[in-house]
Specification:
The complex is a heterodimer of chains A (226) and B (223).
Chain A: H1 3-11, H2 14-53, H3 58-73, H4 76-86, H5 96-122, H6 125-133, H7 138-166, H8 180-191, H9 195-221
Helix pairs in contact in A: 2-5, 2-7, 2-8, 2-9, 3-5, 4-5, 5-7, 6-7, 7-9, 8-9
Chain B: H1 2-8, H2 11-51, H3 55-70, H4 73-83, H5 93-118, H6 122-130, H7 135-150, H8 152-165, H9 177-188, H10 192-221
The chains are: A mainly alpha (226), B mainly alpha (223).
């Protein structure tokens, strides 16, 4: 074999691809499902925490700040490992899927809380006072006056954060979650060929390149006026 | 309660594994000190090259940045570490980790610094050039100092992310903090080493996260 043939045989092998594409597809579906589950839980939780924080009840705010700080400071892989390997010692066991989902959801909620909170702060306080003077309750002022503006400001940074955290689904492979990376690397070691890895890589690009391009568009569309 | 404490904060075990975790922390520090400056330099190169405004080059740079931002860093690492040997090249562990991190972090830093450079009005470059500075001098002495200051919170934020990311090196068994903590946990049948490692990450990164919140709220208040 010439070096080129050997390269093609190892990395772009049609036979290996034909044998393992269903595995990669399974992984692709699981990654997509997990990513959506993380987004669906993490963003509302972050928005809820930021909204509660805007009522400025001191002890509760302290708890929220500690939560947001801890999950922004801890590496997501560390959180997954704690949930999956440390909790069983006190009889709390969970599947790899649940451990990864909880970990990434908490991390996303922490970042989303900070981003929404920054958005809420950027709305001048006078607007809420004006809403109160017009007879709206605080919660109405928050929901109808402050949040629509805060959420708009939050969209570009939130998009980038969501991309970064949903990419973290690959961390699930460490606890043997059968997502793309896990399927690809076990297929690669079973076949002794790097083709499944290339298929896995392609699957990630299919999943995330549109996301990144969307993030780029959102950044120009909702650009902060300096 | 006492039992939970014995499981998660077992002092006897912590005392025994402490030197091992410290060695892991040393490796995490070494790795961070390698990949953060390299990523910053790479990002600087990408952003400065982009600022020249050559259209074809910019297409390439944006493709590079978006490609590696779309790629989960762990996938990149696994691909490099397990894929490159198929090319007949023997890549040392540390080099594989360094390369994966460089490709990932230089893209993120590049995007941040590019936004910084674009936040400086064009007139400044024109004025610097017309006062006799060369492009390189104008970039280095006029544009970059302001550009970097404008995006300082993002730079710090990304640096925190990179340090957190060094945990993925444990997947290729590079003996950094998380790797050693996992090993210690499986040898002692006790999760205290993992809890301790989490505590170490918190102690190191919490001040940076706090600083970041303050910087962000301050910049937000100016709008």
């Amino acid at each position: 074999m010439t070096p080129l043939e050997r390269f093609l045989f190892s990395f772009f092998n049609g036979d290996v691809a034909a044998r393992y594409w269903p595995d990669i597809l399974q992984g692709f579906l699981l990654t997509t499902y997990l990513g959506l589950a993380v987004i669906a839980a993490g963003i509302p939780l972050g928005l809820l925490l930021a909204s509660v924080r805007s009522f400025r009840w001191l002890p509760i705010n302290a708890l929220i700040v500690v939560f947001a700080d801890v999950f922004r400071a801890l590496p997501p892989l560390m959180v997954i490992i704690i949930l999956f390997f440390a909790f069983p010692y006190v009889e709390i066991s969970m599947s790899a899927f649940v451990a990864t989902w909880i970990a990434l959801t908490l991390v996303l909620a922490a970042f989303a809380e900070e981003i929404f909170w920054a958005g809420i702060l950027s709305v001048p306080h006078g607007q809420l006072e004006a809403a109160r003077a017009l007879g709206l309750r605080r919660i109405q002022g928050l929901v109808f006056i402050v949040l629509p503006q805060a959420v708009r400001l939050a969209i570009p940074p939130l998009t980038n954060r969501v991309i970064a955290i949903t990419k973290g689904t690959a961390l699930g492979s460490v606890v043997a979650l059968h997502e793309i990376l896990n399927e690809a690397s076990s297929a690669a070691s079973n076949s002794g060929n790097a083709t499944p890895m290339m298929m896995g890589a392609a699957a990630y690009l299919v999943l995330f390149v549109p996301f990144v391009l969307f993030g780029r568009w959102v950044e120009t569309r909702f650009a902060w006026k300096r | 309660m006492d039992q939970v404490f014995q499981v998660f904060f077992n002092l006897a075990i912590i005392e025994r594994v402490w030197p091992f975790l410290l060695a892991g922390l040393g490796m995490t520090a070494l790795l961070s000190l390698l990949v953060v400056p390299l990523g910053l330099l790479g990002g600087l190169a990408v952003a400065v090259a982009h600022s020249r405004g050559y259209r074809r080059l910019n297409w390439l740079l944006i493709a590079y940045v978006d490609f590696f931002r779309a790629f989960p860093p762990l996938v990149l690492l696994v691909l490099i570490y397990f894929g490159v040997p198929f090319l007949g090249i023997d890549l040392p562990k540390f080099a594989a980790v360094g390369l994966a991190f460089f490709l990932n972090t230089s893209s993120y830093y590049g995007e941040i610094i590019r936004a910084g450079i674009e936040s400086i009005p064009r007139g400044q470059m024109d004025a610097a050039l017309s006062s006799g500075l060369r492009y390189r001098q104008a970039m280095l002495w006029v544009i970059l100092p302001q550009a970097l200051r404008n995006v300082l919170p993002d730079l710090i934020g990304n640096t925190v992310e990179v340090i957190k990311l060094t945990t993925i090196a444990s997947v290729v068994a590079l003996p950094e903090l998380l790797n050693n903590a996992r090993l210690a946990q499986s040898l002692t049948y006790n999760p205290s080493p993992i809890v301790l490692a989490a505590g170490i990450y918190l102690v190191i990164l919490w001040p940076l996260v706090r600083l970041l919140s303050r910087l962000e709220h301050k910049s937000m208040a100016l709008h």
